[in-house]
Amino acid sequence: MDKFDVKVINSLEDICRDMSALMQPLDQIIRRAVHGPEAMEQLTEKIADIATQAEENGDLELMKFICSNILPQMDGIYQLYEQLEQIKRNLKKNETLMNLLKPNCICHIAADTVGNVGDYILVRSFRKLVERKNSDISWCPIYIRDEVDEEYLSVCNQSKGILLGGGGFFLRDTNPNELSGWQWAISVEDLKKIKVPIYVMGVGYNRFREQEEFAECFIENINQLVEQSAFFGLRNHGSIEAIRGYLREELKGKVTYHPCATTVLSKLYQLPERSAKKPYIALNCAFDRAGLRYQDKMDDVMYSIARVAKELAEDYEIHCYMHCPADEMICNYLDRLEVPYEKIFLWAELEVKVLTALEYLRYYTEPELVLAVRGHAQMIPFGCKTPAVSMISHDKLKWFLEDIGHPEWGVEVLDEDFEAKLLEKSRYMLSHREEICQQIEIAQERLWRIMQENLSSLDI
Questions:
Q1: Burial class of residue 331, CB neighbours in 10 A (0-12, 13-18, 19+)
Q2: What is the pTM of this model?
Q3: From its phi and psi, is residue 338 left (phi > 0), alpha (psi between -120 and 50) or beta?
Q4: Residue 256 to residue 450: CA distance in whole angstroms
Q5: How far apart are CA 99 and CA 102, in angstroms?
Q6: E runs forming strands in 111-197
Q7: Domains and CATH numbers, the chain
Q8: Residues of the chain under the 50 pLDDT cut
């Protein structure tokens, strides 16, 4: 495809952005009112049940009211919602087309979402890292869970290449499908139709402990992806060993180590100066797949965390960070033990306004210490040179600590002495903060060198 004047394309992009911005308030109003088509369908069913009961009871006035007032209004809202979704899809197609017209267009397949703060920062830091290699890249964003069809494949093949990452994509239940068995739902046949280079960078094996094994299609799919990739780098050595277990012998050597871009944030951004008026500790917990994370001991683990927070609250403020809505469940335990704390809804801010990466990084440069269950609540503070104690409910946290040479910075949530160890490690890291920060810088420098060496070998 011929390339066009970038200034003209940028002007068209500005128009699309303005249209998207105008749509956002209406979109939010509709979403909050009806919570999407599924909720509308459920509500319609309930009203239909009420109408049926009214008919059985001979309540003609209620039936008339439902049929003449409520149902037409709901139908109008539903149609408006569908029209809005179609406009958004068209805008996305136009934006993709304009990106393809630019020189050096790269398709970036990622989980770019405002629903989880970690993924939001990850996508932006990933691109900033790659731009250190080539500052002229024109990004064509593709959501990891978008349906792969002929138009999708055409977009990929009109680009200079595909970058897949970063993030924990190798997980069977986040986007369940029988094509690949993991988040990128692309069949082996469609993979073979991609003719441009594929670079897998900073991706992780996110299967939980005791979680069901991947479907059979995963084995053929991952072997094809590794064989076809110009570069295949995973974000920790634990993921490398896990993925190699699915590969043919001749492909195992292609899997290499490429850390997550969030671990070198201080190299990518000029971090904001710390300016918190009172020293505080940031606490983040996770509740997705709680049965796999905590088995049948979730209450015990959460009460232990709350008791530690209460101890630390004698000297520090406690700020409870919510990366996504479910994270707020920890507040129930803090409230029951009367722990003084402040709620920080990181995810909610993205629904109100678009914040820069730097505005978000301030949340992880300010704390004296971070207590983290989520992987990004572990890696983002590390990237900001902030000490963190990892509460390990998933192997990926342990693997990261092993890679940086500091397994002592974590504690297993199912350890019999979890509470005592969490308090001990927290107090140690608070009292040795300057020393810990120096150790973070040393470890970060090593990760940075690895990333730069990997990027230097790529034709991007």
A1: middle
A2: 0.80
A3: left
A4: 10
A5: 5
A6: 138-143, 161-164, 167-170
A7: 6-94 (no CATH), 102-258 (3.40.50), 273-445 (3.40.50.2000)
A8: 1, 22-23, 26, 29-37
